[in-house]
Write a structure and sequence with these properties.
Layout lengths: L4 H10 L2 H6 L5 E3 L2 E4 L11 E4 L4 E4 L5 E2 L1 H9 L3 H11 L11 H29 L4 H9 L4 H6 L3 E3 L5 H8 L4 H7 L2 E4 L3 E4 L4 E7 L5 E8 L7 E3 L15 H4 L6 E5 L2 H9 L5 E3 L7 H8 L4 E4 L5 H16 L3 E4 L8 H8 L1 H9 L2 E2 H10 L7 H15 L5 H14 L4 H16 L22 H15 L3 H5 L11 H17 L4 H5 L5 H10 L10 H29 L3 H14 L9
Parallel strand pairs: 12-13, 12-14, 14-15
Antiparallel strand pairs: 1-2, 2-3, 3-4, 4-5, 6-9, 7-8, 9-10, 10-11, 15-16
Length: about 600
């Protein structure tokens, strides 16, 4: 760490984790904790737990966890220093300027240097667009209806036909090859040498919510494939986490967000006054992008292309957006292909009408489903209503399901009671295991749970109990200590836990988590502090469980020491361990009932 531990701890302690995380996702009080939908993977049932007493979070679904610093680093893609600065400013604490060692500065500055390179590249592309060499690109954008002010606002540019000019430009500015390679702007090849990722393309800088250039998209001039090319994944650019235009849309003061497919759609809508438009970045819509939208709105309108590919993309995005807790509607663009084409042909006022007429996403899905069946054929019609009934089962709330059921029945001329019986029949089949419930696939979960043996589980339970009830330290004193936690990570955590209690007479889990640098270790430590036994326990059952766990850990610890004594041929130590084992049977833990 580059700042005093006291300052880091002051900033952490003044940022209540429930308040901080609650500003990003919706939390509900459940017992002693707050629960919500995990922002790091798709889920329908809340498994993301935030503890006010422990000042930490843990997801029982994907395994991520940590303290308030970990959350900000993971959610905002910040470095620790950026998270520290952000949380410091949140509570009115300014970080003092510090001098770093060369190695520390190199590590801490990688992100800022990549942002700096991207900023310089954006300036270079913008300059090229305004030069004589960029005339064709400028004319292309002008013919697409973009004004000078719009080009400037979005920082549009041009990468000229020479395939290494940006590389030479940045090299002359003093940037080294390795940094340029990491930026994704340059490819270094032993045979071909260095060449630019983008050339002869109209350039669209991609910015994060803080207006920092994190990547680029480029549209080829003339013939060529691919038509659109994006920056590769880099240390600062993750396609799945960002949305084009969000830096402007988040300040639009609109109650809804418009989601488009392409850069030009976003720019055309902004120029027409719809400054709440964003687009995904050349990939399928993701849960992380849905969570980003959830920070700024509760309702989204999908304005994907009206062709078959756009319809499929809309159908894929709807459940992802709903899983994030967003209300979803679909705008009908026909007979036009996309928002850009619609605006050019009909103007802003007509687009406003289409917004007002936007269709509820469920009815859109049913409408698309209906196209697959001939409702004049009794067999086809029966299949259609079976599929519709399955979709109605997706509404867990009975009242809401009934509203949609009645609306569908009215639209497709079927008695509501007939459709209700079909829904109930299919629902009961799923409960009985006859039918197949809908599968909801999470995005690739980063943390994989490895199987634990009984001792590992006991060590987790004991660490959780100790930090939840600090009085246990005095009860296990002389019987159980940090050396009795034999697994690597368990031993490290136990040493910190026992040491903190000895020095401060209290254990603050969030402070322990801060002693580990990587987010993976912090998640693992948070999991150690979140163990539990299923079901409710009486006071007597809990006390017995604690006693049994302490004895189990001590016995295992002594067994491990015995093996080491035998391997070292240390008969004195071996005899001592045997005596400790015999004494262990006489030891007990007393509770004041």
């Amino acid at each position: 760490m580059f700042y005093p531990d006291e300052l880091v701890e002051e900033i952490r302690s003044k940022n209540d984790i429930v308040s901080v995380i609650g500003s990003y996702i919706r939390l509900q009080k459940k017992g002693s904790n707050h629960m919500g939908l995990c922002p790091f993977h798709n889920e329908k049932t809340p498994s993301f737990s935030v503890s006010a007493t422990k000042q930490m979070y843990h997801c029982f679904g994907c395994g991520v966890g940590g303290n308030v610093f970990t959350f900000i680093m993971e959610y905002e893609n910040y470095t620790f220093i950026e998270a520290l600065r952000y949380l410091g400013e949140r509570v009115g604490i300014s970080l003092p300027e510090q001098e770093y060692t060369e190695e520390a500065k190199k590590q801490a500055d990688l992100k800022s240097r990549l942002l700096e390179v991207n900023k310089q590249a954006a300036k270079y592309y913008f300059y090229q667009l305004k030069s004589s060499r960029g005339q064709a690109a400028y004319d292309y954008l002008s013919k697409r209806g973009l004004t000078e002010d719009t080009m400037k606002q979005f920082g549009l540019g041009y990468s000229n036909k020479y395939s290494d000019e940006l590389y030479r430009y940045l090299k002359n500015m003093g940037y080294e090859d390795d940094l340029l390679r990491q930026s994704g702007l340059v490819t270094l090849d032993e045979k071909r040498g260095a060449f630019d990722k983008f050339w002869n393309r109209v350039m669209f800088p991609i910015m994060d919510v803080n207006h920092r250039v994190i990547g680029f998209g480029g549209r080829v001039m003339g013939e060529g494939e691919p038509k659109y090319l994006n920056s590769p994944e880099t240390y600062i650019f993750d396609k799945s986490r960002n949305l084009y235009g969000m830096n402007f849309a988040r300040t639009s003061r609109s109650t809804v967000m418009l989601i488009c497919e392409g850069y030009m759609d976003v720019i055309a809508l902004h120029q027409a006054g719809f400054t709440n438009a964003v687009a995904s970045l050349g990939t399928a819509f993701t849960g992380l992008q849905a969570n980003l939208l959830k920070r700024y709105t509760n309702e989204v309108l999908l304005t994907y292309d009206s062709d078959e590919a756009g319809t499929k993309a809309t159908l894929r995005a709807i459940p992802i957006l709903k899983d994030a807790g967003l209300s979803v509607k679909v705008i009908n663009l026909k007979p036009y292909k996309d928002p850009d084409e619609f605006i050019k042909a009909q103007g802003a006022d007509e687009f406003k009408k289409r917004i007002q007429e936007a269709k509820n996403s469920f009815f859109f899905e049913i409408e698309i489903l209906q196209r697959e069946y001939d409702l004049g054929d009794p067999e086809q019609k029966t299949k259609f209503f079976h599929e519709t009934a399955k979709k109605l089962l997706g509404f867990p709330e009975e009242l809401e399901r009934n509203f949609y059921l009645e609306a569908v029945a009215k639209a497709y001329y079927i008695e509501p009671e007939q459709l209700r019986r079909l829904v109930n029949k299919l629902g009961s089949q799923i409960v009985m295991g006859i039918g197949e419930p809908k599968e909801y696939k999470n995005e690739a979960t980063k943390v994989k749970h490895k199987p634990e043996d009984g001792i590992s589980q006991s060590q987790r339970l004991m660490l959780t109990w100790l930090i939840e009830d600090n009085q246990l330290f005095d009860k296990v004193k002389g019987l159980l200590g940090p050396d009795d936690f034999t697994e690597d990570i368990y031993g490290k955590v136990a040493n910190l836990v026992f040491k903190q209690y000895e020095e401060e007479q209290v254990v603050i889990p969030a402070k322990i988590i801060n002693c580990f640098e990587s987010k993976e270790e912090q998640s693992e430590v948070a999991a150690l502090f979140s163990a539990g036994i299923r079901g409710e326990m009486t006071i007597q059952e809990r006390q017995k469980a604690i006693k049994d766990t302490v004895l189990r850990l001590k016995e295992h610890s002594l067994d491990m020491k015995s093996l080491k004594a035998i391997e070292a041929n240390d008969t004195v130590l071996f005899q001592k361990i045997i005596m400790e084992k015999a004494d262990l049977k006489k030891r007990t833990i007393t509770f004041n009932d």
